[in-house]
Amino acid sequence: MDTRSVKGLSLGTCSSCGKRTPIYFRRYSGVKLCSTCFKEDFVKRVRRTISRYGLFRYDDRIVVAVSGGKDSLVLLKILYEIEQDFPKSELLAVLIDEGIDSYRLDGLRTSREIARILNIELHETSFKDLYGFTLGEVVKSGIAEKLKLNPCTICGILRRKALVTVARKLRATVIATAHTLDDIVQTYLLNLLRGEKNLRPIGLRREVENIIPRVAPLRLTPQRELALYAYLEGIPFQSRTCPYTHESMRDEIRNFLTLYDYKYTGSLYAFLNMFERILGKIPQPAEVNRCEICGEPTDRRICRACEIVLSIRSLLKN
User: Fold this and answer.
1) Cα torsion for 43, 48, 49, 51, to the nearest 10°?
2) Are residues 8 and 113 both part of a single domain?
3) 4 is in which domain, residue-wise?
């Protein structure tokens, strides 16, 4: 038996196959996995997540939001494998170019290559095509500062809007995003800190007339395990990071939760389960309010995305 150790931990053999040397120790469960068993377990967890929450139907037309980063490409690859078992389903990929100088170029190249290998249609569009401006133009012109919005806020809201717009054109029945366990918990915490009123479960299928549901098949997958899976499968890591990341409130929450979960292992799962149990007891409105401009669901008269687009266009004219 191999008894090599890491930081005093005897590796022994894989907890699953009992044969190979483990490469990963899952601290919150005490399980040690070799590379083969880790990859198999990773995919099984995504399958269980889809089944547990009823994220897909057997005949869905699924649009996967890709960016060229490891998270979205891992999701695309795994959904491609899973959907082979469902011949009536269709899988498409959509990439939104925000227009952040050279940052998106790596992602574009990688997404095109992976989509080609998997023989998946990749549909590309941009903020420039949809809104008439790029994020880079909005930031460099000082408009973001005038609106008192950081670039990540503008980007996140308009990316979601763009994704829905393209998904409607493609007649999608569901949108799949690569939000991990870490992302979901970060968003819940951010919404609480911002004082959001109408909190709803994130990444779960919600069937409402004329609304394309958005689901997160990786919602029970920790970010560090996704990174390891991407490495083992040879999925490229984006060489450039977004230049605006350090300006976001999410970045601070991300750093805090990463350290907290490392110190108190399993905290992210505990928070997710507790928070969603609470949300499950809150009655959701029977009727959905619609934006007066685009018709998408919103808690406002005009949705935040349309409001931002109108404000930016107005300032660009001046």
Assistant:
1) 130
2) no
3) 1-33
